[in-house]
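Our preliminary data section would be incomplete without showing what the modeling component actually yields. Below, a chain of 486 amino acids is followed by its predicted structure, encoded as tokens that our downstream tools consume directly.
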Amino acid sequence: MLQHRGLFDRIIGERVDLVHRRLILGVVSIVSIGAIENLGVSTALPLAERALGHLGLYGWVFSSFTLAMLVGGVVLGGIADRHRPTRSLIAGLVIFSLGLGTAGLAPSMLVVVVGRSIQGFGAGGSLVISYIVVNRYFGPAVRPKLLAIFATTWIVPSFIAPPLAGYVAQQTSWRLVILGIIPFTLAAGSVAFRSLRQIESQEEQAQSKERDEPAIESLDPVDADRSLVISGLIAASVSIGLALTIAGFSTHGTIRTLLLSVGLVVTMVSVALLVHRVTVIDRRSFVGTLLLRATISCAFFGIEPLLPLLLYRGKHLPIALAGLVLTSSSISWSGGSWLQGHRLGSLSTVQKVMLGTVVEAVGLVILMVDFLSPGLSGWYSELAWFLAGGGVGITYPAVTLLALGHAPLRSEGSISSVVQIFDAMGSSLGVGILGALVAASSVGSVAGTAYAAIGHRFALGVVGALGVLVLSFGLAVSLRRTSITS
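Predicted structure:
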């Protein structure tokens, strides 16, 4: 037991008591389920598209998840701030499991999209809780290492989930891949619930001994609940605005202009209202950090969900091998996250972001060349996405720390929710627009020419992602003088 504890403390970098170790293990179990779901379902979904059809909805399978995720993050994150994280944990995991059941039993691709939306709402709360735990219950010296641990929880699932999901989907059904995640979700939730409830109980006991001190949570309950409802409505309007914008790229003519105009206006107004409602230390720097997070998400997550489908249909890789692209990026992401937490201490937080952006850009260039050259093997894409994942692994924890550095005491949930909204904005817009490009390229194409059209449209999308990364680098440079770079 003592040897076990010593190993755990060496990983964290300082001594951690039993209660906090269990809390870490509980939350890490939830992050691991998220990794299994992401990797397994993304690998199996190309077979769902083949069985149910409607390629035009394929991008929406992922966009709907992230759009609902941003609403769930705000609502459940607000509940965590207003009450205790345990309530958000229970609600998030139950809703997530309900979404899995809906998608797994779906009779059409449209119902899959609905199920993924339900999943996203539940997943939003779970992710916010992980951020709250890091910032509320651990010191600044431990936080980067904990974020790195969250990232490394993807390593084992990345080796197992894509090939196993591909095998199960090919040999039995893609539905079993989705439905099989439900019992693991319930088991992980049980571990996390017990540990989190224990530490909350200790916190309540400590507060009961300090009743004479000024209260931190001084908001009137009615005002707090009203604020939560308003934030949820604003987040929903952001989601609606983004959905209209994405839909605009799938249409033509006057309808496209109308959808894009209304969608962009609704999104920008809603985002401005939401950011204005958040209390931060330095608002200008915080807004720059949020834009940085959105552009990084757009460049990476706008591409990754579509890669298994394109490698399966375009490069003709077996579904299990096509899913290995997710394995390679997960491994390199974990490695990049470990580097930023343990070996890049001489760099400032913003410098880490700049380094990761350059590494990701190199990967995107290789990916673009591979899809512009039908004769090249799909393994070049595997290499490209390995580099891209490593770059994002460096940048993502660093940007998270920049954002949390603006959070006043007891506002971690609200800050994390806003960060998650900008995550969702970037990734949903990226995958939605690129999905529309891919779907449009297949319309009217015969079997012999479909790949050339899809590959060229996809390469065009990668060029757009490179442009977004240039913007990311510029934002990082501007933040170098103004951000909190602890």
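The first helix runs from residue 2 to 12. The two ends are 34 Å apart (CA to CA). Preliminary results of this kind motivate Aim 1 of the renewal.
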